[in-house]
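User: Could you check the structure of this?
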Amino acid sequence: MKILVLEHPRIASEKRFNDIANTPLWSCLMGGYAAAALKREKFDTSFLDEALPDVSFDQTIKRILALSPDLLCVNTVYFWENTSALFDFFSELKIFGFSGHINLFGFFPSLVYRKILKMCDQVDSIAVGEFEHTIVELARSLEKEKSLETIEGLALKSCLLDNKGRMRTPAKNPDVFAFPERSSLKGTITILASRGCYNHCSFCPVPSFYNQGSLWRGRSPENIADEIKGLVAKGGKEFYFCDPNFIGPGTKGKKRIMGLMDLLKPLNIKFGMETRPQDLDDEVLRKIVNAGCESLLMGVESGSSNVLNQIDKSSGPAQSSDAIELCRKYGIEPEIGFLMFVPDSSLNDLKENMSFLMENKLLDRLARTANLLSHTQIVLAGTSGYNRFEKMKRLNKSGIFEFEADVHFLDPAVKWVATLLTFACHTILKTMSNSRSPIFWKNKDNGISQTANNYLVELSYSLIDQALENPENLRRESIKQRKEKILDRINSIIRKA
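Assistant: Sure, the predicted structure tokens are below.
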């Protein structure tokens, strides 16, 4: 039996070009993990990575038909308004004569598997939750022509007849999984050192994918180091740990990461990581920097304690400020995960966000400023936030299979500020993607970029103050007129180059 594991083509979003929350970062390794699991069990497996620039679905169809696999396993990634192209691709595959079994896996299909199976006849099965063992059992059953109904974690059309959950119980020890296949070792190499999260933030799909709740499992330091040693032997020098919580919880998490650093330091690699503010202390920072850590992203999310409680974030602004200061002590300028706007926030919450960002000197670089001031909470199916807002009848569902939703803001004035400030930030970010622009992101910050940065900060304060002073004034001038003024101001800054 021939098996093909596919990373399908992606189409960039015009609307959501700056939003990456459609799937957790470690999705980039899922196809490789699936292929590795099948190869270890001696299945005839090919891994086709089409998630590359300028690769079209038409090209992918030709390659699949040439390989003619009996089982096609697809790491199915949601790519906003263009996701319907993926399901058109499945239909075209069948039209062109593909007769193999089509299986989907990953975050997106796991969280809306019933809707996909109900609405898409071309999909035969979906691996729900952690997928490696499920896909191996699927392949084995297809090869031996056995029933698929009893495979844990596998959703078939028959699941539409009942309300039973189909999620696979996650493996207790992630060391059991084979190191992922990789299509390339160029540039920064992504590593997954742990699975899941020990918290349950309302906006995050990670807990829902693994356990419908908090669950974190770390690979052993020896297992991680063995994988990295193999990649270093092949020329790898720079790595990025794509786990949501690289360090892990409590004393055990700290002990594990300290042991890993002892194993990584002799390898002379450079790496980046993502973590939560409460996982950092002086001893940990010193250790990871000495082992080669050069970049770090922290999920701060808000400078308002009120908002952090709303989104079930377990850390507070003071803890985040301490972590930022600690990073700088060891020479790391942290990147920040931040939600400037959430549906239940007030204008005072926005003021607290601005105070937090300014006090922590996070609004002094244009690319960072434009990102931090523009992010609005994204609500995806399967998250606790989606379920809560749905019960409150505040969701405006959109996207294929209603996977995403806009939420009605409690305060229209906050929505007004969000609309205009996000427009300004997105205009700046799009301009920064133009290589001919004086604020092109690869260029060093200059006078023009600093002026643009200052304008975004001033605009933020101005919009919040206007909304606080007299909300009725907001209706005197249309959103369209306001946007035109913002665009004129940005253009005048850029034209000064």
